[in-house]
Write a structure and sequence with these properties.
290 residues, alpha/beta, Arginase, Chain A, eight-stranded parallel β-sheet, two-stranded antiparallel sheet, 8 helices, 10 strands, globular, polyamine biosynthesis, Ureohydrolase, metal ion binding
């Protein structure tokens, strides 16, 4: 990936043209090689950028404008199609560079397995770090159909790396009996079905902590975001997810980076999924990049 010039294709609205002068870096991870239902999230990062042109650059929620944050859009990491192991290594190398340069990494997926190498690099960089996971699915399996590198496994891997007591999961409404048992008994902070209200209660325990945030778009009800690979009925509204982002923006936590994953544009010709994703990115940039 280039770090010295603007991405040659479509960039997220109002992106800064130079990496070195930027505080934050947007990057895409176009990988959907291990999904268990429908592929297509590898096209998510590009389409989120494309629909961002329809956004206002001003956030009335935060009273901030995108011109107040310098962020560089590095484009998509060129991942070898069908090779998840090599792809994860390339993601790790990219994020390691961004963190070493003191910049705020904001990743766009891609399937949820792409979060795993990011968590490893964040842990390597900061050591004492916590994870907030917002998702419809627990993602607490050891393997899926015999494969440990699966979009169903990244949060279990995170629990093993960070310690379950440092992992906070919100909005979960799908998983095996064993996953829910682990969530409730392992020591992790496990909040099924809702996001904003339990997040309010949990944030005091994270005061002063470094936090990485991973958001799977399928935490939203399919009425708000049908464009995803494994949609689950009974989810939250886009308004509640925005509320969660704003709660984190105002909280006494240091967010060291986020990712937004599992946007699959092919399943949403209305573009509502991509549009809400772009708005979420705007609010993360304005609320979380200090």
């Amino acid at each position: 990936m280039r770090f010295d010039e603007a991405y040659s294709g479509q960039v997220f609205i109002a992106s800064h043209p130079h990496y070195e002068e930027s505080e934050a870096v947007i990057y895409g991870m176009p990988m959907d090689f291990t999904v268990s239902f429908r592929p297509g999230s590898r096209f998510g990062p590009a389409r989120i950028r494309e629909v961002s042109i329809g956004l206002e650059e001003y956030s009335p929620y935060l009273d901030r404008h995108l011109e107040e944050v310098r962020y560089f859009d590095a484009g998509d990491i060129p991942l070898p199609f069908g090779n998840p192991g090599r792809s994860l290594k390339l993601i790790a190398e990219f994020v390691r560079k961004v963190l070493a340069d003191g910049k705020f990494p904001l990743g766009l997926g891609g399937e949820h397995l792409v979060t795993w190498p990011i968590i490893q690099e964040v842990k390597r960089r900061f050591e004492d770090v916590y994870l907030i996971h917002i998702d419809a699915h627990a993602d607490l399996r050891e393997e899926y159909e015999g494969e440990p590198l699966s979009h169903a496994t990244p949060i279990k891997k995170a629990c093993q790396l960070l310690g379950p007591e440092r992992v906070y999961s919100f909005g979960i409404r799908s998983g095996t009996r064993e996953e829910f048992k682990y969530g409730r008994e392992s020591g992790m902070h496990f909040y099924p079905f809702e996001v904003a209200q339990p997040l309010k209660k949990a944030l005091p325990s994270l005061a002063g902590k470094k936090v990485y945030v991973t958001i799977d778009i399928d935490v939203l009800d399919p009425a708000f975001a049908p464009g995803t690979g494994t949609a689950e009925a009974g989810g939250i509204s886009s308004a509640e997810l925005l509320e969660a982002i704003h709660l984190l923006a105002k909280a006494d936590v240091e967010i060291v980076g986020p990712d937004l994953v599992e946007v699959a544009p092919v399943y949403d010709p209305t573009e509502k999924t991509q549009i809400v994703a772009a708005k979420l990115v705007r609010e993360m940039l304005l609320g979380w990049v200090k």
